[in-house]
Design a protein that fits this description.
Largest sheet of chain B: none
Strand content of chain B: under 5%
Oligomer: heterodimer
Helix content of chain B: over 70%
Distance between the termini of chain B: 15 Å
Number of helices of chain A: 11
Structural class of chain A: alpha/beta
Strand order of the largest sheet of chain A: 2-1-3-4-5
Order of helices and strands of chain A: HHEHHEHEHHHEHEHH
Number of domains of chain A: 1
Number of strands of chain A: 5
Largest sheet of chain A: 5 strands, parallel
Number of strands of chain B: 0
Number of domains of chain B: 3
CATH architecture of chain A: 3-Layer(aba) Sandwich
Order of helices and strands of chain B: HHHHHHHHHHHHHHHHHHHHH
Helix content of chain A: 40-55%
Distance between the termini of chain A: 64 Å
Strand content of chain A: 5-15%
Largest interface: A-B, 18 and 19 residues
CATH topology of chain A: Rossmann fold
Shape of chain B: globular
CATH superfamily of chain A: SGNH hydrolase
Number of helices of chain B: 21
Structural class of chain B: mainly alpha
């Protein structure tokens, strides 16, 4: 009995010391300024919170299709708008709502694009590791920031100011790989509409309400996706947009951006590569310009970190 | 899923918890269910093939056992003169069961791993002879670990046939032996006699086993995250862009790949052995400091030990002792001499071993070349060994001196590095081109300008070097039979815990994961 008690005490002590060191090291390794207001937990989960408050003009909410298609740095370079991709792999609509909520709270963007294909993702079909990944990032920030030991300006090496980690890609994932579509897909026109799970419709309703309340222009978009596009999906989203009086930008039907699916995809039509993303980003820049809602910040002192980010981004392109 | 992942760790912990709260009698059933769930999680419906293999060896074992029992009864009533005939009669019956079971299991392996390879060869032959027929090449997924569990299945039936082990009546025990989740994906290829009792023992998870098991698992993570995943970037860049690099950088790529492979595979073995240790199951070691080997034969007795011993027991000896080889060696002994006779016998058996070793690693010419490369090296070693001994005696070189041993170690390592190019290159032509580049375009001065373009920064290289020093120190201690974990466990609690925390946080902070790094795929899980 005594032995068992010793083992239990030892185990608890080991775990406590572990937690102490873990969060101590997390404190040392997380970028100070990025987390000034929100602390270490939230920035691990919502990347946009690393940006200075009220500096983002428009946001994109969605899954891997978004972070492969929208490159905020391309839009910055050509139009001077600040865009951020609030994304997550296989994102679920309730998470999309959380993303929108957190983004509006800290950034008050004027426009919010929502990748409507997310609506068809049934919660039951999501592998457990997606939830795990999101939760893990939330409570174990060291896994997100561990590589900052390479930074010269680490807190314990530099007792001066906290360093700010410059987010270069703003949520975009740069991919220069080419794996083109090899087999043509046959699409049948239909008037049928695909079913959207109720849980997703409820979360979407909350997104619409929040946007209206905070005066954010919510736009439905379906980014180019050769693999996923069907008329059933298109009809369902069109219907939804009509119901809520929202604008719907479809970039699939009749291939309006002339995406070359033999060259501009990294995985046979599911995700775009860099060249595909360049086309979509340019289109979005032009769209935003037409709305007249945003200003060009390229020569604004407050936004010089975006010019620096673009310089690094350009250097990183292969 | 890799054994070296957080996902595996969490699943493993869940199994440990359920196992711990299950009564002793049902503990093996928990392991069996967990093993099948694990297999299903990765390979889905292909679990059916594992089931078929398990049923086949279980049934074959029992049939052979029955034949043995009948034979023994018959022998009791048989005169001494007739005993041999009776034995042979029953042996023939057993052989039919054995051959059928082997063919049944090998057929699945052939279908999933080699059918396309042989179809491609046939298509090439048809092309040469202008035959208007082509086999279609179909793509399909193979059951995870088929190369490993098939060899285990064969060892079970062969051992039962040879009466090395008794066929087990306990169906769950045989099924668990073949499907045990820590070993199913990447081995080691265990033998029934070695592990079945401890696997089915249903031992308690003790504090000692839990701690020791997790220490071993952590050590595997250390090797993978600090070294293997970091070197992955270098390996990818060099093996892809070797045409634009100097021979020195290509050689560096071969060294980096060999180290990466060792760290990934031996790291996985640490996780496998550590996981089993938590359940008090002793899984045999698969590595024994391979880079301290003094020749290629020695290397293969230290690297992927379970495959080497499997091939030795089930290929090398049966081929050496087969009738045609025996006839040939007797002929050579009579007409030439003993040495030539034994060299030829060894060469024939080794050729069979290395053909299969190459093919086991993959269906491709480069893998066959990998096997034959080692075959030639071992054969040359056997042929020239007496000459080397004589030369050393004449030159008064002490073969037991540290310098000579060091020379042997370096020589062996260099040969291994070169051989791994066949293993990693996308095909045989690329491998040969890379080797040609090493020998014809070796320019050590250009390596300085090429290193910065290998995808890692200076700090990454520092981490690799420091981690390799740690691994080297541990290897030296193990080579000198030091039991490091036992030694650490006897230290004062403060020092002991400091070591554990250093290991854990070393992995968490300096591990090559997250943006900018691409983890190594579990290399041996594909075999």
């Amino acid at each position: 009995m005594k032995d068992k008690l010793i083992i239990v005490v030892k185990s608890i002590l080991f775990a406590l010391i572990f937690a102490l060191i873990y969060y101590g090291l997390s404190y040392l390794l997380i970028p100070g300024n990025n987390t000034k207001k929100y602390g270490i937990i939230k920035t691990g989960e919502f990347e946009i919170l690393q940006e200075e408050e009220n500096t983002i003009d428009a946001i994109f909410i969605g899954d891997s299709v978004v972070y492969s298609a929208i490159s905020p740095m391309e839009i910055w370079n050509e139009f001077g708008y600040t865009i951020f991709d609030c994304v997550g792999m296989s994102q679920l609509t309730p998470i999309s709502y959380e993303m929108l909520y957190e983004s509006i709270e800290s950034q008050h963007p004027k426009v919010a694009f929502f990748e409507a294909d997310v609506l068809f993702r049934d919660e039951k079909n999501i592998p457990i590791d997606r939830y795990f990944d999101q939760t893990f990032k939330k409570f174990f920030p060291l896994s997100t920031y561990h590589n900052n030991w390479k930074e010269k300006t680490l807190k314990f090496l530099n007792t001066g100011d906290d360093f700010t980690e410059l987010n270069v890609y703003k949520g975009y994932k740069y991919i220069h790989k080419i794996k083109g579509v090899t087999e043509q897909k046959e699409l049948k026109e239909t008037k049928k509409a695909m079913r959207i799970p109720k849980a997703n419709l409820d979360a979407f309703q909350k997104m619409v309400d929040l946007s209206e309340e905070k005066n954010v222009k919510l736009v439905l978009i379906t980014n180019p996706n050769y693999y996923n596009f069907t008329y059933e999906r298109y009809n369902a989203i069109s219907k939804l947009a009509k119901k809520y009086g929202l604008e719907y930008i479809d970039l699939n039907k009749d291939n309006p951006l002339k995406i070359d699916w033999t060259k501009e995809t990294k995985d046979r039509g599911v995700h775009l590569n860099y060249w595909g993303a360049k086309k979509v980003s340019k289109f979005i820049g032009e769209y935003l310009k037409k709305t007249g809602l945003l200003e060009d910040h390229r020569n604004d002192e407050k936004y010089q970190s975006w010019n620096e980010a673009y310089r690094i981004y350009k250097n990183n392109l292969k | 899923m890799s054994y070296l992942s957080v996902e595996y760790l969490l699943l493993f912990l869940a199994v440990v918890i359920v196992y711990n709260f299950t009564p002793k009698k049902l503990k093996p059933i928990v392991l069996l269910l967990a093993s099948y769930a694990f297999f299903f999680y990765i390979s889905g419906k292909l679990v059916f093939y594992l089931l078929l293999s398990s049923i086949s060896i279980y049934g074959a074992g029992l049939i052979m056992k029955k034949i043995d029992e009948k034979r023994d009864k018959k022998l009791e009533k048989t005169s001494k003169e007739e005993r041999k005939t009776v034995k042979e009669k029953y042996k023939r019956r057993k052989k039919i069961v054995l051959v059928f079971t082997i063919l049944f299991n090998v057929a699945f392996l052939f279908f999933f791993k080699y059918l396309n390879f042989f179809k491609k060869i046939s298509n090439k032959i048809f092309n040469i002879f202008n035959i208007n027929h082509r086999f279609s090449i179909l793509k399909y997924a193979a059951p995870i670990g088929i190369s490993f569990y098939t060899l285990q299945a064969l060892s079970y039936v062969i051992d039962v046939y040879n009466e090395k082990i008794e066929a087990d009546k306990n169906i769950f025990k045989v099924f668990l032996y073949l499907s045990f989740f820590p070993t199913i994906m990447e081995g080691p290829i265990t033998r029934y006699g070695q592990v079945s009792d401890s696997i089915y023992n249903g031992s308690k998870v003790t504090y000692h086993n839990f701690c020791f098991g997790f220490q071993r698992i952590l050590w595997g993570f250390f090797k993978k995250f600090l070294i293997a995943d970091r070197l992955n970037a270098v390996v990818k860049v060099i093996f892809k862009g070797y045409m634009h690099m100097s021979g020195a950088s290509v050689a560096l790529g071969a060294i980096a790949y060999t180290i990466m492979l060792y760290m990934e595979f031996s790291g996985t073995m640490d996780v496998v052995i550590g996981s089993a240790e938590v359940f008090d199951i002793k899984i045999p070691e698969n590595f024994r400091q391979p880079f301290f080997a003094k020749n290629i034969t020695d290397f293969w007795s230290r690297w992927h030990i379970s495959l080497g011993t499997w091939l030795k027991d089930y290929i090398f000896y049966p081929v050496s002792l087969s009738k045609p080889v025996k006839k040939l060696t007797t002929f050579l002994r009579k007409h030439i001499n003993n040495r030539v006779s034994s060299l030829v016998m060894g060469a024939i058996a080794l050729f069979a071993v290395w053909s299969l070793n190459g093919l086991w690693h993959g269906a491709g010419y480069n893998f066959l070349a990998f096997g034959y490369y080692h075959f030639v090296l071992i054969l040359l070693g056997n042929i020239f060994e007496p000459t080397i001994v004589k030369v050393c005696e004449k030159l008064k070189i002490n073969r037991k001196s540290t310098i000579y041993k060091g020379f042997q170690i370096v020589k062996t390592s260099l040969l291994v590095f070169l051989g791994e190019i066949f293993f990693r290159a996308i095909n045989l032509t690329t491998a040969l081109r890379m080797i040609k580049r090493i020998f014809l375009h070796f320019d050590i001065t250009s390596i300085g300008s090429e290193i910065p373009n290998l995808g890692l920064d200076v700090k990454d290289f520092i981490v690799i070097v420091v981690a390799l020093i740690v691994v080297l120190v541990v290897s030296v201690l193990k080579e000198h039979n030091k039991n490091i974990r036992e030694d650490v466990s006897k230290k004062h609690i403060v020092l002991r815990w400091a070591i554990y925390y250093a290991l854990i946080f070393g992995i968490l902070i300096f591990g090559a994961y997250g943006p900018g790094y691409e983890p190594v795929d579990p290399i041996y899980a594909d075999f």
